[in-house]
Amino acid sequence: MYGFHGRLLHIDLNTGHSSWIDLEESRLRAFLGGIGLGTSLLYEFASPGVEPLSPANPLIFASAPLVGTGLTTTAKYAVVTKSPLTGFIADSISSSFFALELKRIGLDALVITGRASSPVYLLVKNGKIEVRNGEHLWGKSAGESEALIRSELQDPEVRVAAIGQAGENQVRFATISNEGRHAGRGGVGAVMGSKKLKAVALRGEGGVPVADPSGVATIAASLRERSLGTLTSKYREIGTVANLAVFNRLGSLPTRNFQQSTFDQVELLSGESLTENSFSRRHGCACCTIQCEHLFKSLSGQEQRLEYETLFALGPLCGIKDPDAVLQAARLCDLYGLDTISTGGTLAWAMECAEKGCLPEAQKLGLGFGQADALLATIPMIANRSGLGALLAEGSRSAALQVGNEAMYWAMHVKGLEMPGYEPRSLKTMALGLAVNPRGACHNRSGAYEADFSGEVNRLSADAGRGALVVDSEDFAAVLDSLIVCKFLRKCFTDFYAESAELLSKVTGWPCSAVELRRTGERIHTLKKLFNQREGWQPKDDWLPPRLLCEELPTGVAQGVGLNADELREMIHGYYQAREWDENGFIPEKKLRELGIPAPQAGGFANAGR
Amino acid sequence: MDKPVPSEIDHSRGDRVLYTVELFGVARLRAKTAELSLELPRDATLAHVLLALSEKLPTLVGPVIAPDKSSLSTGHACNINGRNFVRSMSTKVNPGDKILIISADAGG
Q1: How many Å apart are CA A609 and CA A27, to the nearest integer?
Q2: Which of A94, A210, A370, A431 is at a distance of 20 to 30 A from A502, taking alpha carbons?
């Protein structure tokens, strides 16, 4: 087999037993790697209705066919599990050297079930598998754990993914971190913590041959060149923080818990200002020519990575205008292993509750929009589940349910996942993408905002035709996330499906066409939805928070623009039609057959895609 | 994206008005300014705006404005008044319009 190892490693932490399991070629062709492979394994390894923080919930690390081929931006891996935040699928991606090592240890996926009786870490080194004592790591940050493990193994080349204190304490939006990067959304770190698994350490020597090395090298050279042009200059020269000032100007920057879509003090926080005043250096993932990460220096001299989503969530969303406070908050989230979007979203909810008098504990802490000191004091409380942090560690949906009444109205989430920095009322295609995505309010599994920024649609008005655009965006993301290729490379392809199909053929030796690959994207996305359906998805879950449907935007160029329930319903129906699902959004068996997805009762993926 | 190429700006026409160009991201960093005014004929198109911008800020030619000076380099987009994204450079701009030059990629 080329491009894949054709096997997974299953480790049961209840017993410490491990086993190698062959992966059928048909499954790999049908679902590729990364998110696709991980979803197919989740469907199989998770019992229907499994409790996310129970030992039975599988935690899956999935590699991908392009990893290790030298293609730019492909050093990535996926983590897939059932989310403790949403109760549906959690599929997160992280990158760099840990991803390369995952491939080198000779597997396509690592599936972890069970729960250790005391903290452990897992070591897979040159074919040897050890569940090692991790008690001395418990309470440490992911970065500290990484350093300690390397030190005790006396191996500086070992690669580590670990959880911080938030994961240990099963904060429902805890991350898994490697080399300062995070598999961030959906609480995958909480699942790892529930297994008392502090870290996964890898060291391998095996590569995977590709079917046509010179063909792969030619494409790699072409993509490398394309990745250095003006298509990616935003990422290289300023980073994703460039979005802040633009979104503000377009009336699309969620501010003060989505009460506004513009932020008066935006210039203090803009990517341009940060670059001019605080830029420290640029960095990037292994095997990446774009090097999009921009590190900024805080007043104390510490370097901190900052992305748009973190900047928006810990800045304007919470009414914070001080760039140093945002950098400090981002550093705390990284240190404890907290998803910055959910942290900011949940804190913004608490701030609004405090200001409106329905959360006395938050008032006592001084939480309110713009209160940077209180924000910085509350983040460690979330990670440690202390005081008010115990409530906030459950995420905004669950916290609002506990507080009740109007607090529910201020919880800005879809399916329990806090909303990213794209204002749905002024980005109508994105509004639909956020409402229907299986992961919840997600800007990565659907880049529906692309349509809104294209000039091809009126971003301020809604219509049923947006359904097809969202379908295209989701299927495209499913393929990108399963090959895996970084989304920041996406515009460098002239014909994405044709070029990727050719690339996949040269890596695996399998014949593959653009049409087939497009179908693969649909299959992967459909399986994600099928998993959610099995776990109790109902039509009401594809919806947006009530604030977005009741309040018009009060400021900026989109002042007076709203989105009502009828408009959203029309777009959702258009989406279900474009997906060829039934009118309530359930997948008909005919569609499963068409896509070669075994019916739920049949089990197994031996004949998937046929 | 069509590219009507105005070879030069006709400075002889009397009926001239001010347009504002707002720069974001790479364009702002390269130009070292966030905003500037351009005086152009009343019936100017976006292509005219870019040509005038190229003359005023030659540093943008290449990284932001294409070598033909009447279209944008790949990866950049134009928005008028913060509301509408415009693909055709033959689109006419109205007196008082604010023309935004931004990155075409909104990924974050």
Answers
A1: 7
A2: A94
pLDDT of residue A541 exceeding 90? yes
* Residue A344: pLDDT over 70: yes
Residue identified by tokens 């046929």 is A610
Whether B73 and A271 lie within 8 Å, measured CB to CB: no
Put simply, the answer to whether B29 touches A272 (Cβ < 8 Å) is yes
pLDDT at B92 over 60: yes
CA of A272, closest CA in chain B: separation in Å? Answer: 6
Contacts of A230 in chain B (CB under 8 A): 63-64, 73-76
Q: Which residues of A578-590 are buried (b: 16+ CB within 10 A; e: fewer)?
A: bbebeeebebeee
Q: How far is A427 from chain B (nearest CA, A)?
A: 11
Residues of B in contact with A556 (CB under 8 A): 82
CA nearest to B98 within chain A? A249
The pLDDT value recorded for residue B3 is: 46
The ipTM estimated for the assembled molecules is 0.94
Return the SS3 of A104.
Answer: helix
Q: Do A251 and B82 touch (CB under 8 A)?
A: yes
CB contact under 8 A, A307 and B105: no
* pLDDT tens sequence across A124-135: 998 899 999 999
In this structure, are strands A120-125 and A197-203 parallel, antiparallel, or unpaired?
A: parallel
Instruction: Find the mean pLDDT for residues A208-229.
Output: 96
Distance CA A276, CA A490 (A): 28
DSSP state letter for A405: G
Classify A438 as helix, strand or coil: coil
Q: Judge: A443–B108 Cβ closer than 8 Å, yes or no.
A: yes
Residue A127: what pLDDT? Answer: 87
For residue B61, is pLDDT > 80?
Answer: yes
**Cα A174 to chain center, whole Å?**
12
d(CA A575, CA A432): 8
Task: Give me the phi and psi of A165, to 5 degrees please.
Answer: -65, -30
Handedness of CA B100, B104, B105, B106 (dihedral sign): positive
Chain B residue closest to A487 (CA)? B107
Grouping H, G, I as helix, E, B as strand and the rest as coil, residue A431 is helix
What whole-number distance in Å separates Cα of residue A351 and Cα of residue A328? 18
Question: Which residues are within 8 A (CB) of A383 and not within 5 positions of it... i.e. 6 or more apart?
Answer: A164, A165, A166, A169, A171, A332, A336, A337, A338, A389, A393
- Class of residue A463 by CB neighbours under 10 A (exposed 0-12, middle 13-18, buried 19+): middle
d(CA A225, CA A337): 35
Considering only the beta carbons, identify the residue of B74, B87, B108 that sits closest to A230. Answer: B74
Q: Cα(A431)–Cα(A428) distance, rounded to whole angstroms? A: 5
What is the distance between the alpha carbons of residues A82 and A89, in angstroms, rounded to a whole number? 5
A234, A312, A455 ranked by CB distance to B25: nearest: A234
Looking at residue A610, the DSSP 8-state letter turns out to be -
Q: Is the CB of B108 less than 8 angstroms away from the CB of A237?
A: no
* DSSP code at position A409: G
* DSSP-derived 3-state class of residue A282: strand
> What are the distances in angstroms from CA A355 to CA A254, A348, A358, A407?
18, 11, 8, 11
Q: Which two tokens stand for residue A529?
A: 């939805």
Chain centre to alpha carbon of residue A345: 15
Which 3 state secondary structure label does DSSP give A547? helix
CB contact under 8 A, B24 and A229: no
- Residues contacting A48, CB < 8 A, separation 6+: A534, A535
Residue B58 burial (C-beta neighbours within 10 Å; 0-12, 13-18, 19+): exposed
Q: What is the pLDDT of residues A444-486, one digit of tens each?
A: 999 999 999 998 999 999 999 999 999 999 999 999 999 999 9
* H-type alpha helices, chain B: 26-31, 46-56
Angle at A571 between CA A567 and CA A572, to 5 degrees: 115
